[in-house]
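To: structure desk
From: M.T.
Subject: fold request, one chain
Message: Could you run this one when you get a chance? Sequence is below, nothing fancy, just the single chain.
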Amino acid sequence: MADNKEIVPAEDGRVAASSRAEKVKAIFGQFDKNDDGRLSKEEMAALVVAVNPSVRFSEEQIAAILDEVFRTYGAYIDSGGLSLDGLRRTYDDGAGDVDRDFDALGLTLAALEESQDPKDLGKGVDKTAILEAAPPLTTGAAATPAGPAELSPAVKQLLEELEQTLKDGESGAMDASNMQKVLAEMRHRADTLPSRSPAESFDAHMEMGWLLGAYSKWEEALRSYRRAVALRPEDARAHFRIGNTHFQLTNYVEARDSYERALQVARTPVDSKLLPQIHVNLGVALEYDGYLMGACEHYREAAILNPHHHRSLKHLGSALFALGELRAAVEALQHAVALRGDYADAQVDLGNALYGLGNLDDATNCFKKAVELDDKHIEALYNLANVKREQNQFQDAMRLYERVLDAAADGNAQATEWTWKMKLNHAVCMLAMGQGEETEKALTEVYKETGKRVEIYELRKIIKNQKANGNNAHLLDTLKSMGTSHTYGQPPQARAPGDLANKAQPTVRFARANHATSTPTQVKWALEIRAVQKMTRLGVCLPVALRREASDSNLPEDRRVGSPVGEGKIVRKANVEKIFRRLLDNHTNPQSFAQAMKHINQRMLAVLDKDENGTVDLGKVLAVVAILCGAPMEDRKRAAYDIMLWRARKEDGQLPRSHAIGFFRDLHMVYKPKHESMDSIPPVQASGDEGISHQEFSAMFEDNQIGFNYLQTLETLENYDRVRHHGMKCNVSGYNIVGPRFYCTNGNFNLCATTYAEMQVPLKGQKLEQYIFEEYALEKQSTKLGRMACYSPRNQAVLGS
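Reply: Done. Structure tokens follow.
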């Protein structure tokens, strides 16, 4: 988003989360031998060996592990290697156990000092998303407090002395310890002014806080504002300023609490102008703590209170864009730019949303407008270059990439972060313009800068192999699609447009050698469900936690037991977001939680919110999530059954059959693969309301008409989707097989799960009437005898597409 609001972990006193972060930091520091803030492949190899003292790794095994880590977490890798955030992300994803590794290394964790400066905890926070009515970050005359029209002479004198003290501190004429004593004395004077008037003391503390904030003395400003609140606890402006100060100190939870208190005590019409600002700032604080849906609620409220509040609409559009709600984002951002046409950040976010909807022309115009308003707007330049590249206007794209690279050379932090991506895109344009030699050199440079990423290494090999025939069409598609694939267990370019078409025959007839082998349809659905499970991170949830959330306490009053409202457990999506935060709290930070909620919103909430009014049935949501839990499959089914009983208000009885059928239809709607026909979704059909037991409900999963018989294959993927098969390659994609291997017994070739699901076979080779497959999760299942066995037609289960 154009405001570049980086969401960072909140310092909210949660000891477990803080301890976990410190442990990751200690592990990182143990192996960052050159103190460059990155773990190179050599340093990562040392880490892997050290935390597994009982395992003897071969060089090939170490190389395979590192290749997968550096491929999967490429966004956290630059020329030096894996960043601290990248290592933290590997642990968040379950690739390792931070507590086990910490203990294996014999490290100790010193307790955090209570006096630790929050500024140190929040280093790196980007506050370009400026809070409404925040104290100005300037000094001197420009920092004059904006308080009441008339201040008493005593208060004015106190403020003049305070400003002089702050200037002395800036110039070095007064050290920090003396300044603290002087400030404490001034606060005491504010409490004991000659008039002894609480109102006068309140004004003094409020204006002192404002002035201290103008000089970035946030801790001291907080002390002044707290004195003001003690004098007048029902003053919304005081709580609002405390929230702003906490935000500057990166205390986002405390900031949120202060804004919420400000909303509680605000009165109309006295605080009418302040209310929209409180809502916007509360939204920003929520967003920094990962609550995008909650933030949207407050941005909307601010826009309702003040329809001309362009920043609330900009923030709303940006948050909706982050949640994947592109059409709603476009609507909000169009209102923002209509109110303020010179709002470059809003133009960029509008362009991003339009681009996501496939409207390239309007997106291009937005990026151009942003560049006209700010010719050094890095995101606008970069996005405009990407659109030009997509439209095959390679010369224009190259010029734009070069402008951003120049900005990186000048020290622009955002441009520097994107340098390797821009160089890669620049190489795409060079290749398209026939500059093969230069492209190879450019890719070599990017390869070195990114810590020798596997994908770029493979692309360099492709260029060398294609020099003879000069056919770059496939390579261009591969380059353009880098990082866009959601194919798990395969390199990002494994599903590049046109990749399989060049190597595979049209759809053919598949058969199974035995019933232990999954069908292509089962594998296709299981891959999709597994992808959703990883993107939403819901595989870490336990069934007992889901059952705990299936409670009337999570519902509004009118939906609880005994209420006259009809069927359903309807809640707002922002409330569902809070429930998922509780479920994922120990496994995500605010940034990764926001990313998970984007996928949860797109794949589940948007599907179940049929009326598009921002509400969903909590029972349905928790039930469809149950199959993703980290537990044996029967426990997941039992959790879904219990949640559906709660939804039907039949906790002590049996589940009505109509509710069970509706549940299976919801499963199909939520987890349907992108290109799967709607015919695969069970139609709405009349059914009786006779009760069914848990055993009958569990058996319904295998029903070919209304069931969901993909869970056994899903369980296989969960257990084996990281298994490598001694370097065996898929004979269609050409990449190493990771996860289940499908061996064609009568064609003598191997397929990975993706190509098997798409029913692709190699172009080169004998064309058969049907292809018979065996599935191997582990290589020990594959024996010489098994490969040479003769199969009877009775054992060959013929598969459809």
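Reply (cont.): Residues 153-171 form the longest helix (19 residues). Let me know if you need anything else for the meeting.
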